[in-house]
Amino acid sequence: MIKRTLLLSVYILLMLWVVYTFLRTKKTDELVFSIGAGTKEIRFIKTLIDKFEAENPAIKVTLNVLPAPTDQQHHYYITTCGAKNKDVDVMRIDTIWIAEFASAGWLESLGNYIDEEDRASFISVTEKINVFQGNLYAIPWNANIGLLYYRKDLLEKYNLQPPDTWEELIDICIKISPTESMYGYLWQGKQYEGLVCNFIEFIGSNNGGIIDDTGRIIVDSEQNKIALDFMHDLIWEYRVSPQNTHSELMEESSRHLFQQGKGLFLRNWTYVWDLCQEDPSMKGKVGVSQLPKFSHGKPASVYGGWHLAINSRSEKKKQAWQLLEFLTSEKVQKELALNLSWIPSRRSLYKDPELLEKLPFLPLVETALKDVQIRPNLPYYQWVSDVLQKHVNKVLSNQANSDVALRTINAKLEGIKSEFAEN
């Protein structure tokens, strides 16, 4: 009897092994998802990948984690995609790379993957940024815009409201900053991409611009001159911004000063809100509003954010789209907002009660997105940015005046435009 029982047990175990080995769903499709982000973000995204694999047992996703600095990520894609590499399937890419990568033939056109109803569920700026020459090449994963952070406790102490105009901001800074021994306005003025974002917001708030809808270069204008002079004067005439703004201040350096209690106002991205709430010394003391405008202008915030795209040379495009569709779904975007404070790109989530509690400034973002400023959506944007960074920074560091800088920028952008038109 015992012998028969043992034989039966062995037989059952053998059958279970056969079933597991030959009949189980095999992960026959391996996708490589290339992404650069912070440690906390990567850790959470791995949990999302686990959920995707559970829902799609035939697909195995391998994360190709890139360095967090965007310039290093850009260099990686230039090298990898430029070599016609097929190994990467899904890519997380910056807003300003879409036109460049699409024009080079590195991105799969997504028009045949997404239906019109789903496409329309994303924020409207999608059709300006993610479309190149009439084709959709990426899906927005998380949105981002420039905001004005302010010391709510100090404005209340002096019975003042957040400024609507730049003139009001100056007045408030002059009234409060000397008494409280702090800088008035912190922003990003170092020679890098962040300076371009600030410049576009300043000129946009005075009805200025870089390139109009017809493609005409309009940098050398009176509106832009007024805005650029004002950027200079924040540092050197009104002295409400640090004198090292042009040489040191980037997103993190300006944020650190603000969280150390050394700034009354701060221009920065949406991620700062969560960090201020986690900081015991700042919790309850910080407010958020739209950036100010010039007296005859309108508030202007630059669009940032990250997008998901498919490598045009991927051999698993169908499975890549499944992953992209999952990660940009309303359900997953809500998880990202609740856990990482990412701003959703699905319009419906801006009315979600849980998200409004977590991110009370969402209505502000929703309003700003309706008329958001975008950096020129050009294949050669990197060259445009380099020119803007260099010559705007020269004004801030007293190496050039605004007239010379704007004329030089205009001429150089015309040259870049002509060169790329020939090619």
Plain-language structure description:
The chain has helices at 2-23, 39-55, 70-82, 98-103, 116-120, 126-129, 152-157, 166-180, 193-204, 222-236, 251-259, 271-278, 317-327, 330-340, 353-358, 362-369, 381-396, 402-422, and strands spanning 29-36, 59-66, 90-94, 131-132, 135-136, 139-142, 147-151, 183-186, 263-268, 286-289, 306-310. The chain is of the alpha/beta class. The strands form three sheets. It has a five-stranded mixed β-sheet. Strands 8-9-7-10 form a four-stranded mixed β-sheet. The protein has a two-stranded antiparallel ribbon with strand order 4-5. β4 (131-132) and β5 (135-136) form a beta hairpin.
Low-confidence stretches: 13-26
Order of secondary-structure elements? HEHEHEHHHEEEEHHEHHHEHEEHHHHHH
**First-last Cα distance:** 86 Å
Count of runs of 4 or more consecutive helical residues: 18
> Major β-sheet, in short?
5 strands, mixed
- The portion of residues assigned to helices is 40-55%
Percentage of residues in DSSP E strands: 5-15%
Mean pLDDT, all residues: 93
Characterize the overall form.
globular
Order of neighbouring strands in the sheet with most strands: 2-1-3-11-6
Radius of gyration: 25 Å
By DSSP, the count of extended strands is: 11
Content-based structural category: alpha/beta
Oligomer: single chain
